[in-house]
Amino acid sequence: MSKRDYYEVLGVAKGADDKDIKKAYKRLAMKFHPDRTQGDKGMEEKFKEVQEAYEVLSDEQKRAAYDRFGHAGVDPNRGGGGFGGGAGAGDFGDIFGDVFGDIFGGGGARRGQSRAQRGSDLRYNLELNLEEAVKGKSVDIKVPTYVNCDSCDGSGAKKGTSAKSCPTCHGAGQVTMRQGFFAVQQTCPTCNGRGKIIPEPCSKCHGEGRVEKSKTLSVKIPAGVDTGDRIRLTGEGEAGMHGAPAGDLYVQVNVKAHPIFQRDGNNLYCDVPLSFATAALGGEIAVPTLDGRIKLKIPAETQTDKMFRLRGKGVQSVRGGGAGDLVCKVVIETPVNLSDKQKELLRQLEDTMGGEGEAKHRPKSKGFFDGVKKFFDDLTG
């Protein structure tokens, strides 16, 4: 099945900036996250699709390749750049190399050399809870990867020996094939474009210069990170073949949904239940923050859904500047499981607020029903 357009997946225009792309990703990641969809396979696939689209569109080089070549430009199985395998970024020229490289010469050799120059980038998905994302922490992660062979120091040659110039291409990495009037340059079949051969390969890495190994890294997560943020660890990706430089490791942050707070940028939002009596008479209530509970003064005659902003009680931005705010929305809670006496008291209260006093005690209610009455009078009149 063909893949959907990445811009369509995130619901953004092709010319969208990084901020719009990140905002769309955060919204969809929260919507389809497995913690919220409770094992729904369809939603899980959508979550993976959103992650894949963001991974490409948030990277400047990959986005440029995608805009130019489509999915083929970022498909690691077809030579495109990408995390977690295949050649490094910049190899999407392989898509057309077989056609144009051999005709104009040098294409095959360049491809062979580019693969040997640098190891692949890797991605590690790290899930944090809100408290960890806000405060920051150091985490140890275990990454399966390739590392330089310690037996041959990454050369691929048996200890005491070294690689030699290829006898077929004499170190050029490419050979010229002549047929009639045409001369075509191709990758050397003996050395695969490297220009060197290893007569006596290392017995541990079998001539590759690298071996599979899981390594443990300590990653410092800065305070204030959010879903979609990436931390780059230079040189911690896969080791290149035959002693070539290693790629990079990207730690992709995903912040799990919180049972109390919702985060939007540097601000936090939460709903706070408020009793009927406190809403009417005023008072103080305890509200949660990430630093503990604090007292919030509620003025008399507070209506449901009223918002209170607590300055500086949100999230400190990872990019510097002041902390965000905590916005508390009060929700008046209707009393339940009332005794007979409590019910009688409420009826007495209701009686005292009816009649001529209704406009004074319940102006919204009276205004609403007066408007409804006028609406029907106009219809029948």
Structure description:
By secondary structure, the chain is an alpha+beta fold. Among the domains are: 118-163 and 198-256, HSP40/DNAj peptide-binding domain, CATH 2.60.260.20; 258-334, Urease metallochaperone UreE, N-terminal domain (HSP40/DNAj peptide-binding domain), CATH 2.60.260; 342-381, no CATH class. 31% of the residues lie in helices and 25% in strands. It has helices at 6-10, 18-32, 34-37, 41-57, 60-69, 94-104, 107-117, 130-135, 276-281, 340-352, 358-361, 363-380; strands at 122-128, 137-148, 164-165, 174-179, 182-187, 196-197, 210-221, 230-233, 249-255, 262-264, 267-275, 283-289, 292-298, 307-310, 326-333. The strands form 6 sheets. A 4-stranded mixed sheet has the order 10-11-15-14. A 3-stranded mixed sheet has the order 1-9-8. A hairpin with a 2-residue loop joins β10 and β11. α2 (18-32) runs antiparallel to α4 (41-57). The two termini are 62 Å apart. Residues 78-115 have low confidence and may be disordered.
